[in-house]
TrEMBL record, chain A:
Name the UniProt record assigns to this protein: Myotubularin-related protein 10-B
GO biological process, one term: phosphatidylinositol dephosphorylation
Protein family membership: Belongs to the protein-tyrosine phosphatase family. Non-receptor class myotubularin subfamily.
Positions of the Myotubularin phosphatase domain: 192-560
Gene Ontology CC terms: cytoplasm; membrane
Gene name per UniProt: LOC105364818
Organism lineage: Eukaryota, Metazoa, Ecdysozoa, Arthropoda, Hexapoda
From TrEMBL, chain B:
Residues holding substrate: N344, K345, A346, K347, N369, I370, C431, S432, D433, G434, W435, D436, R437
Biased composition, class Basic and acidic residues, residue ranges: 71-81, 625-635
GO CC, one annotated term: endomembrane system
Name of protein: phosphatidylinositol-3,5-bisphosphate 3-phosphatase
Subcellular location: Cytoplasm; Endomembrane system
Primary gene name: LOC105368958
Length: 659, 656
């Protein structure tokens, strides 16, 4: 297999084969220059010729030669035998050998065996041998400028450092993108930007509990962000609290954020997010007034419980955990990969990533149990914009089946993250900052949701492919959804005559993908509520109770390992289950069509599968895998050149050696 | 039975979910077939109590269906068979008798606290049934799983529940019972437990010899050596069937029927056997249907310190190489770490020198010996039972080395597959004696290479062939009925193999006809001594013991209820994969929690894979039903049109 693979790599050029390299390159250049695909408003800012790109997690001995360009939107590598069809999931905005600049996390300068991390504004040496890039979606890139014209490396690197870490928000590509936009977002997705969405949500939750007096009301006190800049313009507050009271109360809380309603269950128990009191304020009167109002407005006047979310978790702790975790997911070389194999489990433990996943799920279960007993729950944390968002949306996923549909999930993200003012711009690190604000809380949330999908495979309408794509999408600086810190900033940018930002929603998936790829977001195992399937039999409560102990959690390999070629399982992986279910559905749809004479009438997205051409022989990272990888990555390194750890030949086994 | 099939599964599922919380048949979710023999399931009390605290999710009952069904079925049968059982006594198998009963015993459950009840001992199992709880708490365990029994506390011990019996088991759990501190209340059951857990140490027969039950299909006929060789196309030009060992005279731990190179004479075989440890010469395990590359197995050569050679053995190996026209090489996979292979020279063993065996290449696979594996599993048990320390679960797992050993074995198997499949080169596998690591490697490699072994019957054949007939010493490794719990010959080699199979099934969820429950059932009966399958250590011993006549085969039992063991995701249609290459990376190798941690109720509420499988089965059945309806509708329509347009015909034209 190994020998075969080498023959397949016609364009693979060894470092030693210098002459051959030059022969082919001029031809490639001419092809390449024409084939950089640019979006309207996109412009090339730097270019490196004859750049070698290495296979991720390889020995960096052989690379593909091509042109590495930096635009104001992306990093793009174009090679002669590059064809855009190399990947299953195709993005309309960028290709397989491209990455959005906002996705770039860290850039390392390669110097022989060492590497040096470069921060924006760092002085770039005149001779750049190679660079190694780690992306926020864990993809890695490794380039060598060994054969490039002098200066190309430096130019590319300078452009990269400058454009990947903009200093001002209006330098993000969203402001440059000139493509006209006609929204085709599903109308069912509530953006929680206007008053009706809020009113509907309040009505929806209260219509389920039939005889309940609604203890909450929609307030317009924050219109034009008069109370709080980071909350939405419409907030839902205890019915007994007047708007003028709100103004007063808000000042006592961090970020001027008064406690606001998130959701209520059938029993009228509300889920509330609350920030902590400002450090300067010592008396708790205002807090107590709000607590009393929340109690009073409960149908049975039950005292709310406060779940504090600032004890065992912090933005910083999550960030540092993830930075360790990244190393396990994005090894820079085979050597590092194999070293990690030796003690992967203890390395994993030391990152504490699963510990935080476990923490969030545990808190969500605690809160859900309280609510289920009719007790109102108040989530409290610093400014109530981070861990609060994770827990409150998890609670709603556990308790409210509506949010487990795709439109419901998107509405939930709008309500609990976007409108609630989770500082996406800071946390995702879209702008150059000192790094203290950057923290992948959103990924932590997606990981928690993924764990739920694993434990309840038929309860969610979306697939893990959807969740992974969502994390990728969070780093495309074209969509408004994840680039702002709060609604006020968003509205400002959209109305400012100087910028006039077009608000493109991430939920407009057609901007990125074709129908076939969007269909992969639909979980074929999903039991539509109301369907006759047995698990939706009457009397079944909607409350999911996941296991949250670390020993019960799994690693989200699709999201974290998909860029490591050695981990591709050909014809294997969990998505085989999905494929199998789709096959069955295809058969059924086909039969139905046959019977109905071609007029299968159903609006369910799954029925569209009848037109869906199933990809057979998919590998474990489908649809993110490179189509070629199945052939080119031969018997994985771990299996052929197996580096046995020294620790395996331990004293113990030598003692008992002659067996 | 087969006809009942999955339609019935569906019905049960529906009825189950209707009364999810009050389901008294709510059986052990790991559906251990051992436990499911009785009406009340062992952990049912816990289940019931947990479901009171919150309503169960859609799927939490799903994985109980299989065992619920089994329970139903077995109970139906029992009505006629169970003559001795009464209201409170344990349900009994045919040939099972109650030997001792202790009342007023407290079972100290590590999860739900003490439960007071009656402890019975039969010649097959231990049975405890609580009397102080609304839903009785039941422990039901074959005595075959007992490793050792100890008395805890004496007549003068103080404190509650300080006097009693502790039972250490081979299947990752321990049980503790507390007795009243008077009249030697534990003496009788303790003695009976000793006797019937370790019948061989008390000059008694294993239960398998007393158990009788007839099944429609006799599992002893599942494996016919000649038929299996014929399936692989033997005899052919290069390989022949040899019955030279018919009386087990050349090698007493080998089967009576071998496949060897056609060119090899009986003298060749005899002299090769003379140069191999315990006479275990290279014979065929598997042959590639297209390339004719083979997997052969043997024991180490008797090289010794002096570096002895055997021209005959070298010539014989050359014949194996020559039998494969596609390659001029032979890879010798020595399962051991090189250090161990070298150390074996001191005891007269060793490994092939590449100088002596021309065109051969020796590869060491670094798999450790049975003692290392035993120690590793002991540590794993310490980590998993009774409760898990969450703060150091991952690093604790690493320190047991268990997953590392699994990875090593998988890596070895993948290397064999790569040579045979990709390089079309024959591989000879051995370790020291060729009955532990060698069996793991050849069986796994065959499983990866040949889809037949991934079916239920094929897997049974694989175990019969590579493990049982080639003399894996089950008797010594498991220690059936033997009280010497610290015997150095005991080792979980077979458990480890099943774990590897499970790992592969995790990576290829639709490549196997069987499900996890099938693997668990095999492991349960590895210990139970209810069936004759895993008794004795070689084919010769089994023939001597007349096991086929005197005991029931596990495969009779399993093949009688195939639907329980079927993987609904199994895909053998077009494009199904012939060869599996699992990724032997630590990032994928996982602890088999639903086996090792199955006694811990908090670990087993949901098993995602199993659950998903159950869900799919239901969904598949629904879809199938739907499709069937469509087809029927179509058929009737076609019939109508045909009837109106054409003269009536005798047979319906649609059903094919």
């Amino acid at each position: 297999m190994e020998s075969k693979s080498c023959n397949n790599f016609i364009s693979y050029v060894g470092f030693e084969e210098h002459e051959m390299q030059n022969l082919g390159s001029s031809r490639r250049n001419s092809i390449n220059e024409n084939s950089i695909k640019l979006l309207p408003g996109e412009a090339v800012v730097a270019k490196g010729q004859n750049v070698l790109m290495f296979e991720p997690v390889s020995e960096s001995k052989q690379g593909i030669s091509g042109v590495l360009s930096i635009t104001n939107f992306k990093l793009t590598f174009v090679t002669a035998d590059d064809n855009g069809d190399d990947i299953y999931q195709q993005n309309n905005l960028y290709g397989y050998t491209d990455t959005c600049l906002s996705n770039i996390d860290t850039i390392y300068l390669l110097m022989g065996d060492k590497k040096r991390k470069l921060v924006p504004g760092a002085v770039v040496p005149s001779k750049v041998k190679g660079i190694f890039i780690i992306c926020k979606n864990l993809r890695t890139w490794s380039f060598s400028f060994k054969f490039s014209p002098i200066g190309d490396g430096k130019n590319v690197l300078n452009a990269l450092l400058h454009h990947a870490f903009p200093t001002k928000h209006h330098l993000l590509f969203a402001y440059e993108y000139k493509e006209p936009y006609y929204s085709s977002v599903d109308k069912e997705v509530q953006l929680f930007r206007n008053i009706t969405d809020w009113q509907n949500e309040l009505d929806r939750t209260y219509s389920r509990g039939i005889h309940l007096k609604n203890g909450w009301r929609l307030s317009t006190a924050n219109v034009e962000f008069q109370i709080c800049p980071s909350l939405s313009e419409y907030i839902i507050v205890p019915a007994s609290v007047t708007d003028s009271q709100l103004f007063k109360v808000a000042q006592h809380f961090q970020g001027s954020r008064p406690p606001v309603w998130s959701w209520s269950n059938e029993q009228g128990a509300a889920l509330v997010k609350m920030s902590e009191l400002c450090p300067s304020i010592t008396e708790r009167t205002q807090e107590n007034i709000m607590l009393e109002n929340i109690r009073k407005n409960h149908p049975r006047k039950i005292q709310p419980v406060i779940i504090e979310l600032n004890k065992d978790i912090s933005i910083k702790a999550v960030a540092s955990s993830f930075s360790k975790f990244v190393h396990l997911c994005s090894p820079e070389s085979v050597r590092q990969f194999l070293m990690q194999e030796n003690n992967f489990y203890s390395l994993l433990e030391s990152t504490k990533w699963l510990k935080y996943v476990s923490y969030c799920l545990q808190k969500a279960v605690e809160a859900s149990e309280q609510l289920n007993n009719g007790v109102p729950v108040i989530l409290q944390e610093g400014a109530g914009r981070d861990v609060c968002c994770i827990i409150s949306s998890l609670v709603q996923l556990l308790s409210d089946p509506y949010f487990r549909t795709i439109t419901g999930f998107q509405s939930l993200l709008q309500k609990e993250w976007v409108a609630a003012g989770h500082p996406f711009c800071d946390r995702l690190g879209h702008l150059k900052n000192d790094g203290s604000k950057k923290s992948p809380l959103f990924l932590l949330y997606l990981d928690c949701v993924w764990q739920l999908c694993q434990q309840f495979p038929a309860e969610f309408e979306f697939t893990e492919t959807y969740l992974t794509t969502l994390w990728d999408t969070a780093h495309i600086s074209i969509f408004e959804t994840f680039i702002f810190n709060c609604e006020r900033d968003r509205i400002k940018a959209a109305t400012d005559p100087n910028t006039r930002l077009v608000l493109r929603s991430v939920w407009d998936w057609r901007e990125q993908f074709n129908e076939q790829d969007i269909l992969l977001f639909h979980n074929p195992l999903f039991n539509h509520p109301g369907s006759s399937s047995p698990s939706y039999a009457k009397g079944k409560s909607a409350f999911l109770k996941p296991l949250y102990k670390i020993s019960c959690l799994e690693i989200w390999s699709q999201c974290y390992f998909r860029w490591i070629p050695h981990l591709v399982i050909n014809n294997g992986g969990h998505n085989q289950i999905e494929m199998y279910a789709r096959l069955l559905q295809n058969d059924v749809a086909q039969l139905q069509m046959d019977i109905n004479g071609g007029g299968g009438i159903s609006s369910s997205p799954i029925d569209k599968m009848s037109t869906y051409l199933l990809q057979m022989n998919i590998n474990s990272f489908y649809p993110f895998s490179n189509k070629k990888s199945g052939n080119t990555v031969s018997t994985p390194i771990i299996n052929t050149s197996f580096i046995m750890s020294e620790s395996m030949i331990d004293a113990e086994s030598l003692l008992t050696a002659p067996d | 039975m087969e006809k009942r099939g999955s339609a019935e599964l569906l019905n049960v599922e529906q009825s189950n979910s209707k009364n999810a919380s009050s389901d008294s048949l709510n059986s052990d979710s790991k559906s251990s077939s051992l436990n499911s023999k009785i009406g009340q399931e062992s952990e049912s009390w816990e289940k019931a109590s947990r479901s009171k605290s919150f309503s169960t999710s859609s799927t939490s009952t799903d994985n109980n269906i299989i065992s619920a069904l089994e329970t139903n079925k077995e109970n139906q049968g029992k009505e006629d068979l169970n003559l001795t059982g009464n209201e409170t006594g344990p349900p009994l198998l045919n040939g099972e008798r109650v030997q001792g009963v202790a009342r007023d015993v407290t079972y100290l459950c590590p999860y739900s606290g003490p439960a007071r009840g009656v402890l019975s001992v039969t010649n097959y199992k231990l049975h405890f049934r609580s009397i102080d709880r609304e839903t009785p708490y039941v422990v039901d365990m074959p005595l075959g799983v007992v490793s050792r029994i100890e008395k805890v506390g004496g007549a003068l011990s103080r404190g509650e529940n300080s006097y009693g019996i502790e039972i250490f088991c081979k299947d990752m759990r321990n049980l503790r019972f507390a007795h009243k501190q008077e009249n030697h209340s534990r003496r009788n059951v303790f003695e009976k437990l000793q006797q019937y857990s370790f019948p061989l140490s008390h000059n008694m027969l294993l239960f398998a010899y007393e158990y009788s039950e007839t099944f429609p299909d006799n599992g002893w006929n599942v494996y016919e050596p000649i038929a299996e060789l014929k399936r692989m196309g033997i005899n052919n030009d290069m390989w022949k069937i040899s019955k030279i060992n018919d009386l087990y005279s050349i090698c007493d731990s080998y089967p009576g029927v071998w496949a060897v190179p056609t060119a090899a004479t009986d003298e060749d075989l005899q002299s090769s056997a003379a140069f191999r440890s315990r006479g275990r010469l290279p014979v065929l395990s598997w042959i590639h249907p297209e390339s004719q590359a083979t997997i052969t197995r043997c024991a180490q050569p008797l090289v010794g310190v002096g570096g002895k050679r055997s021209r005959e053995d070298e010539r014989y190996i050359q014949l194996i190489m020559d039998a494969n026209a596609q390659s001029h090489k032979l890879i010798i996979m020595d399962a051991r770490p090189m250090a161990n292979a070298v150390a074996n020279k001191a005891k007269g063993g060793g490994y092939e020198s590449e100088d002596a065996y021309q065109n051969s290449e020796v590869v060491f696979l670094d798999i450790h010996n049975i003692h290392v594996m035993r120690e590793s599993l002991r540590k794993l048990k310490e980590l998993c039972f009774p409760t898990i320390d969450e703060t150091r679960w991952l690093s604790g797992l690493e320190s047991t080395m268990w997953l590392k050993h699994i990875k090593c074995i998988l890596t070895g198997a993948v290397k064999i597959v790569a040579k045979v499949e990709t390089h079309k080169t024959s591989v000879l596998v051995h370790c020291s004696d060729g009955w532990d690591r060698t069996a793991q490697l050849t069986a796994l490699a065959m499983l990866l290479l040949d889809p037949y072994y991934r079916t239920i019957k094929g897997f049974e054949v694989l175990i019969e062939k590579e493990w049982l007939s080639f003399g894996h010493k089950f008797q010594q490794r498991i220690g059936h009925g033997d009280e010497h719990h610290s015997d150095a010959d005991r080792s979980p080699v077979f458990v480890q193999f099943i774990d590897c199979v499970w790992q592969v099934s995790q990576q290829f969820p639709n490549a196997f006809q069987f499900n996890e429950h099938f693997l668990t059932t095999i492991l349960d009966h590895l210990y139970s001594c209810r069936f004759g399958t895993f008794l004795c250590s070689s084919e010769r011993e089994r023939v001597q013991e007349r096991l086929k006549e005197r005991t029931v085969s596990l495969w009779s039992y399993i093949n009688n209820q195939i639907p329980f063991y079927q993987n609904p995701l199994y895909w053998d249609g077009p494009n199904h994969q012939l060869v599996l290459i699992p990724i032997a990376s630590m990032r994928y190798i996982k602890p088999w929690k639903s086996f090792y941690c199955r006694w811990n109720p908090s670990m087993r509420q949901q098993d995602p894979v199993y659950q998903r499988t159950r869900e799919l089965l239901v969904q598949k059945e629904q879809l199938k039903k739907k499709a069937e309806e469509c087809r029927r509708e179509q058929a009737s329509r076609t019939n109508r049109t045909l009837n109106s347009s054409a003269p009536p015909r005798l047979h319906s034209p649609v059903h094919s």
